[in-house]
Design a protein that fits this description.
Length: about 350
């Protein structure tokens, strides 16, 4: 079968290669790949900056945003042939740490977790893949190819859950949420926050264009420019840009008792002049919480699949702005200005 694989930490090694179909040791459920979404992590792995091959192997099969069709459900999965499934990405560490021991692999304490398509387990960019039944999440069949949005949705479901859990430390009746960054995670966060009944604002660099239209189509408000220019103080902010300046402004702009959830990962960039003690003082005086959120556990995957099933299909469809064939995977990894989510399609839905 065909698979897209890479020698991690070596630039220029990504190839579409022929490999044997996966063995039962990789999971009792056999799945035919339909589509795999690409994101910044894939770009980093292909760029030689990130990623680990399985122990004893040189190459890693890429892909962590999966969607496939069950070909053989195996003896005890509760799945049926033809079911649409998505594979959970992270696996608990082998020790395990206390959080992995209770199924919270997203909160792993020792960093020894593994991740499909990223860290020591093959990903989903192959014509067929196998999975353990407990890590296969069934998606609403009416979603079709839109089920490929479940992995980024799980990350969003966790971030919003964290904000809600933290909010409940005091009387918590949030009305407004600001989302910074109108990429796939930001737009899915806007969608979920709308489903949860919040007044949603999305801020991005671009003054207009398809992302602004997507925000407005959702019944949310689109802003461009600086967070500091907003004429309200959000109850919660989901920060998806990872840009230092934007993060600093979010921390200054958040309302009293408000929560800033950092969900974007950036590197370096502009040095900001805010004095740490001043930032802390403002957080102290207004009971603010700044929290990081990464990955997702089964509870978040389940919530995300429920939310996607409730979402407007036509709106979700506009998030997938480009579909590439496996042989053109390098095109899929090159960002274009109006891209939201680019997917590689392996078989017809
Ligand atoms: Zn752990």
């Amino acid at each position: 079968m065909k698979a897209i694989s890479v020698e991690p930490k070596k630039q220029g090694t990504a190839r579409l290669i022929d490999i044997p179909e996966p063995g039962v040791n990789e999971g009792s459920v056999l799945v035919q790949a339909i589509a795999v979404g690409v994101c910044g992590t894939d770009v980093e792995i292909v760029g030689g900056k990130y990623g680990w091959a399985p122990p004893g192997q040189q190459r890693l099969i890429l892909g962590h945003e999966s969607l496939g069709r069950v070909i053989d459900p195996g003896p005890s999965s509760g799945l049926k042939k033809g079911d649409l499934v998505v594979g959970i990405v992270r696996r608990p560490d082998p020790v395990p740490c206390p959080n992995c021991a209770v199924g919270e692999w997203d909160m792993c304490r020792n960093g020894l977790y593994t991740e499909r398509g990223i860290k020591e387990i093959h990903g989903f960019m192959s014509e067929y893949w196998r999975i353990e039944p407990e890590y296969a999440v069934k998606v609403d069949p009416s979603l079709g190819i839109l089920g490929v949005l479940l992995e980024p949705s799980s990350v969003v479901a966790k971030a919003l859950e964290q904000v809600d859990l933290i909010g409940r430390r005091s009387f918590w009746e949030p009305k407004t949420v600001l989302i910074t960054g109108a990429g796939p995670v930001g737009l899915l966060a806007a969608l979920f926050a709308k489903l949860y009944g919040l007044e949603v604002h999305v801020l991005d660099r671009m003054e207009g264009g398809p992302k602004a239209d997507l925000v407005r189509d959702l019944g949310a408000t689109y802003h461009s420019g600086s967070v500091m220019n907003l004429d309200f103080e959000p109850d919660a902010i989901i920060e998806c840009t990872g840009v230092g300046q934007v993060i600093a402004e979010c921390i200054q702009k958040i309302g009293a008792n408000g929560i800033v959830c950092l969900a974007g990962i950036g590197h370096g960039g502009a040095t900001i002049s805010s004095n740490i003690a001043d930032v802390a003082a403002s957080a102290v005086l207004r009971n603010n919480v700044i929290v990081g959120s990464v990955n997702a556990n089964k509870r978040h995957w389940y919530r995300a699949s429920q939310n996607l099933a409730r979402a407007d299909r036509a709106w979700l469809a506009k998030l997938i702005t480009r579909i590439e064939k496996p042989e053109n995977f390098m095109n899929a990894l090159k960002r274009r200005p109006d891209d939201v989510k680019v997917v590689i399609q392996f078989s017809e839905i």
